[in-house]
Amino acid sequence: MKYNFLKPVGILSLSLSILSCGNSSETKDQMDDLSVNMENKKNSLLKEWEGPYQGVPAFDEMNLEDLKPAMREAMEKHLEEIDEIANQKEPATFENTIAEMERAGKMIDRVYTYYGIWSSNLSTEEFREIQQELSPELSEYSSKIKQNEKLFQRIKAVYDNSQEKSLDSQKQRVDDLVYKNFEMSGANLNKEDKKRYAEINKELAELYTKFSNNVLHDEENYVTFLDDSQLDGLPESYVSSAKKAAKEIGKKDAYVVTNTRSSMDPFLTYSEERDLREKVWKKYYSRGDNGDKYDNNKIITKILKLRDERVELMGYDNYAEWRLQNRMAKNPENAMDLLMQVWPKAIARVDEEVADMQKIADKNADNITIKPWDYRYYAEKVRQAKYNLDSDEVKQYLVLDNLEEAIFYVAGRLFDFNFKEITDGSVPVFHKDVKVFEVTNKTTGDHVGLFYLDPYARKGKRSGAWATTYRSYTSFDGETNVLASNNSNFVKGNEGEPILVSWDDATTFFHEFGHALHFLSADVKYPTLNGGVRDYTEFQSQLLERWLSTDEVINRFLKHYKTGEPMPKELIAKIKKASTFNQGFGSTEFLASAIMDMKFHTTDPDKIGNPSEFEKKTLDKLGMPDELVMRHRTPHFGHVFSGEGYATGYYGYLWADVLTADASEAFAEAEGGFYDEELADKLVKYLFAPRNAIEPSEAYRKFRGRDAKIDALMRDRGFSVD
């Protein structure tokens, strides 16, 4: 997954609830308060953040035993705050209702930060048991706030008044977002339907946790071991990493292909052992689909039925209709229309790519028909034949440490940020591999925030790459700095060896840093405005990917890991010439996932049956090529079934890609190119700093002077423009 909030941001991202304080006597209340205060002193997760930089998370004091009591205490504390807001006697105003809701919940924000670290970065069997226990409690907590009648009536009163006499721009945006969020969460339902709505949310929370943990189980347990006779074709750097990974799990005389994309992808690209490629491919794409107790198909069926039942309570035809009403696409028809505009061109390109691969296989007398586990391997052969471009040769110039310098260089040129590593131990980290940088404004020297970088794979860390914040910028009750984090899964080599990454992984590294820059450049008053519209929040990060291939980055930072020599101009020319290579594969595997996301959520769940079978039947009807599969097959499609952030929202990457391609052309046409100062200022002012303070379409028009056009995307991928 490329983007993930580990903790709630403002009152919109939090699934809130309200809990009655009961009829306890004043004496008992005082005793309880004393008990709680004593417990807080012992529980590190509840403490206010101390130390430099406005206080930082006490990652060095994390104790899993503290998690359940901390989360329960934090929920209760927040619910008391909300209860006080809901039961005010004064008429509802923005200041005494919406602003106070923005102000509440600081303790649970802190606890959620630690919860998120355990969930994504340091998961263990013990934590997963706690997570399974807490997830329904968190859901119940959420439902009680979202369905609090007194609270909603105050929110509605403020909203209704604002429709007659509008507030200033940021207040109005917050007010609109809060009201819509509560409305979409069933606040207008009758008492009986609210009860069922809450029950559904509780069931879903448990299912999402189980889904995620099942996938993590398969990633950790279904690995492939190799011996010295099975390494043909694999680059030296990969062999070294595979050796180290095997040693870490107690296999000193073996090599291991872990069940993650960062390990699977290069193996399928280079290994000459076709039987092993098939074995590795099947393990990766069958995660959550092995017919054992960790199989996710039945869980998905339950999720789809519960989602459908829940939106029916509010009068919607299907989940997608409900979900997309406040996205840029507005409805599933618009989203599907975009996907289907690109689909025919993508699968036609796959046919061309497979034909090229089959020619090489036939020429080599390999006596095979291209299968999914052959695609990457023979695509690499085609790349070398067509463009004389060897991915492993490119990799020699993609050193992770140099890429780190490259992203900071880009941030300095475009955002006027400076990054300096903190090495004195003043900022605690949750693992020794995590690095922390202070971010300052280059011109003024003003402190902006901290950037945590957690780059390496390890047991208990979920696969993929993502970004998150531990604290967001607001100027609400005084300015807060930003604590932003990027997390990746690069495989370490042996001590002292440079870490070489693929061009795709380097692109993802830039992508996640784009999210971090979005966090760090925020200039909003209210916490809620740090949220985002899902089919827009990927745009900023996808746009930053384009700076990897700028001449300034290539010439300064893409240097050979042994000689230190910059990448030769001939190799650069080959890379740029091959920029649209394999777009059939990349586009089709993504589109298949996005289309299935829509199909699952616009189809009557009773007509779906087994999700894996529905996936196959649906894609067969659409003409899905036999030689590849969805990027994320349904049983491990965490974007969609481990929560609701991307459910019916996976198309958003393509929606954002339209914006990205169009904005990239603006830079390409600018006098100063991708480092044009005037355009960079507009980039920060309109596309990064406002976060969700401006409606996304309006923000883009302010930057570009018009709406984005799909033609740029087609040109970008080398597809014909009709």
UniProtKB/TrEMBL annotation:
Its cofactor is Zn(2+). The keyword DNA-binding does not apply. One of its GO terms (molecular function) is metal ion binding. It catalyses: Hydrolysis of oligopeptides, with broad specificity. Gly or Ala commonly occur as P1 or P1' residues, but more distant residues are also important, as is shown by the fact that Z-Gly-Pro-Gly-|-Gly-Pro-Ala is cleaved, but not Z-(Gly)(5). GO terms for cellular component: cytosol. GO terms for biological process: proteolysis. Its EC number is 3.4.24.70. Residues 73-194 form the Oligopeptidase A N-terminal domain. InterPro entries: M3A_DCP, MetalloPept_cat_dom_sf, Neurolysin/TOP_dom2, Neurolysin/TOP_N, OpdA_N, Pept_M3A_M3B, Pept_M3A_M3B_dom. Pfam families: Peptidase_M3 (PF01432), TOP_N (PF19310). SUPFAM superfamilies: Metalloproteases ('zincins'), catalytic domain. Transmembrane segments: none annotated. Keywords: Hydrolase, Metal-binding, Metalloprotease, Protease, Zinc. Residues 267-717 form the Peptidase M3A/M3B catalytic domain. Binds 1 zinc ion. Belongs to the peptidase M3 family. This is oligopeptidase A. It comes from Psychroflexus halocasei. The lineage of its organism: Bacteria, Pseudomonadati, Bacteroidota, Flavobacteriia, Flavobacteriales.
